[in-house]
Amino acid sequence: MEASTRVQSRRIVVPTEAPAPTARRAWVDRWLATCSDLQALKNGHRMSDAVIDEIDGRMIRIGDQWLADFASCNYLGLDLDRDVIDAVPAYLDAWGTHPSWSRLLGSPVLYEEIETELTALLGSEDSLVLPTITHIHMSVIPLLAGSGTIFLDQRAHKTIYDGCQVAASHGATVRRFRFEDPDHLDQLLADEANPSRLVCMDGVNSMTGNAPDLRAFAAVARRHGALLYVDDAHGFGVIGERSPAERCHYGARGNGVVRHTDESYDNLVLVGGFSKAYSSLLAFIACPTEVKELIKVAAPPYLYSGPSPVASLATVLEGLKVNARRGEQLRERLCRLTTRVLDAVDALGVHTPNRSGFPIVELPIADHSRIGAVGDLLFDRGVYVTLAAYPLVPKDEVGFRVQLTSANTDAEVDTLIAALVELHARGELKLAHPEER
Is 349 left (phi over 0), alpha (psi -120 to 50) or beta? Predict the structure, then answer.
């Protein structure tokens, strides 16, 4: 009885009215209000925070519903490739599941093999692999920037922004230049007194699907003595060097935006990942050997972080072999499927910022508040995409992103196109400007 009374007395002292919000709570409330559209999708939409119960090729099952998957970044379809999958057990037998050393302490020879193959593919002076692109941005951008000035593309990926914020906390100054505007970068660099300058930008953009005019940006950076830092997460493996023998306009070998634009690595470092086209947990920086050696003694991911699993190292090595044998066929198929979607979008008179024909097709909707309803229709029609809600994108760009892979089928593309036709008929998609037609 006394124990029960004590419990009751503790309950009585709990306030019946919420206390006045603290300064911290007010800040949280403002942030939640800003993200309310995204929060609503996260909390209640079937196409957000979903649990995938089963896959069958590029078909996925969520609960009882099967959908064609156009949200995957596995552009070459190597996540489903039997040559890659069947090779993994031998690596596990030889190395176990996970090397627990930091790279400073010791690395399986698999790392050296990857870096040798990768450097030859990219045509760079050297390369270094680390677990993720985020690891690289957070550690290498501050290292390269020092107390200098970073010139940041205002539409660069969020992880680049975060790396620049870490650099700012270490003493760097961050200035933003307009998206796809090398002249604005030129002006900012001309006005900058600090001689230490780093320019950070994307290669193939993760929303528009377009590559930058890299030659123009590289010329501006070199003219002003700035180091150009390019994140080509979505281009590596998909686009590559141009060749008279290329099978599609993506180019050959999938060696990234630098080779695709016939640029050099002079005063340029390239960051990319294997988590997209190669379907593996690993990333790289292509750089001069002296920069590689600097990273080895100054970048926390090399010094302290746990390495990628052996299966990831295996899938990279086997993926590089598949790329050498069959990569051109995979890219040709990927290009053909993407062209089918873009041709359908063009025939409908619907707007997309994609000018490149690369396999990222963003489709803004007519009314940003309808993003949940648009997602519901796509889900009900058996189509799975990436929803882009405010504030992830500006309100006039709210919509969804379609990503094609070589593992998608024509039947799946038919299903997607039928859903786009229905959305257009309902007035849900933003129409193209007359000059786009």
Answer: left
pLDDT tens-place string over residues 272-329:
999 999 999 999 999 999 999 999 999 999 999 888 999 999 999 999 999 999 999 9
Question: Cα–Cα distance between 97 and 312 in angstroms, integer?
Answer: 10
Q: Per-residue pLDDT tens for 384-423? A: 999 999 988 899 999 999 999 999 999 999 999 999 999 9
Amino acid sitting at position 204: V
Under DSSP, the state recorded for 429 is B
> In sequence order, which residues have a C-beta less than 8 Å from that of residue 168 and are 6 or more positions away?
150, 174
Shortest CA distance to 334 belongs to which of 247, 241, 210, 206? 247
> What is the model's pLDDT at position 433?
85
Write the single-letter amino acid at 75: Y
> Quick one: 64 exposed, middle or buried, by C-beta within 10 A (0-12, 13-18, 19+)?
exposed
DSSP string, 277-326: TT-SS-EEEEE-HHHHHHHHHH-HHHHTS----HHHHHHHHHHHHHHHHH
Residue 5 burial class via C-beta count within 10 angstroms: exposed 0-12, middle 13-18, buried 19 and up = exposed
Q: Strand, coil or helix: what is 203?
A: coil
pLDDT at 2 over 50: no
Residue 307's pLDDT is 87
Say if residue 432 is exposed, middle or buried (CB neighbours under 10 Å; 0-12, 13-18, 19+): middle
For residue 313, what are the contacts with CB-CB under 8 A and spacing of at least 6? Answer: 91, 108, 110, 111, 114, 280, 282
pTM of the model: 0.90
Cβ 322 vs Cβ 77: under 8 Å: no
